[in-house]
Design a protein that fits this description.
alpha+beta, Zincin-like, Immunoglobulin-like, 2 domains, 9-stranded mixed β-sheet, 5-stranded mixed β-sheet, 5 helices, 21 strands, globular
Amino acid sequence: MFRSFFLFTLLFHFLTIVSAQQDDTEHYCNKAHQSRVFFQKSVRQSSYTDNYDLKYYRFEWQINPAIYGISGTVTPYFMAGEEDMQTISFDFSKQLIIDSIVWHGSKISYSQPEEYRLDIFFPRAVKASTLDSLSISYHGTPPSGGFGSFIKGTHNGTPILWTLSEPFGAQDWWPCKNGLDDKIDSIDVIITSPAEYRAASNGMLSDEILNFDGTKTWHWKHRYPITPYLVAFAVTDYLAYEDEVQLSDGTKMPMVNYVYPEHAQAARKGTLENVKALQFFDSLFVDYPFKNEKYGHAQFGWGGGMEHQTMSFVVNFDWGCWLMSWHISGLEIMSPVAAGRISGSMKDLPPISKA
């Protein structure tokens, strides 16, 4: 009975809010609207990337959060389209320096005819409908477009480096196929950094290796389709801990939390509240789609949050304050408020308005 009433209420508020949104003032968190305002259509998808289907990426990056920069190797696996391929193209910033592109063990040629275009030339054609791969090694200081696609900051005097590629910022720091039209089927994110830091990213942490040179390597595996703007990492001196989320089908899913050490007490309280919210949504709607891996948080310095796949980046853990800023439309208004009332973190809020 409660489920039916709640869903009816959601629909009612969605319809009234849509009809009420006639003015031009929208909250900064309405990122879809901002992408329409601030970004040209030409960067959303490129016709020169239409001749292949992305299957897999292996990202191997060296990151020091004290230094603004990136270096490493990206290896995409792709399926050629209906015609043989002599060239493959990616969306990628010309500001980054390409060290080599290797295909079948040999270096091959490339060009960068535009600010965000990388053309790679095969010495012989890749046959239609054939799975193939290549490796692009590069380094440099990425531009930081959009909402800050590549950012270096500090917390409590400690350096942090994070990415936030929504809507079209992935091309600022890795060779991608920008847009939403071709999800990558799965990824591995392998980050090496000085040993005093931790690296947060998508999927499940499969390995943590202490290297002889005083660095650590963090290997994250994600086995769900993902769009380029949701690929993300953050590196700093995180304190890591887990909460367990008991879902309605019996699944015990980890909620993995990477938080600033100086915010540990507030974070532990806040993530326990979020366990209740996730269980509440699980009881009302469909299954959380990545329950076989995790849901997680990584703290960062951007004012608000970003729902990177399996690992949301959040500025703090005071849900009662900043969840209310998600006043965009429909479910994004009603769901966090209802969950907050269930958990008690928003019990002192005034009644919900219909418009």
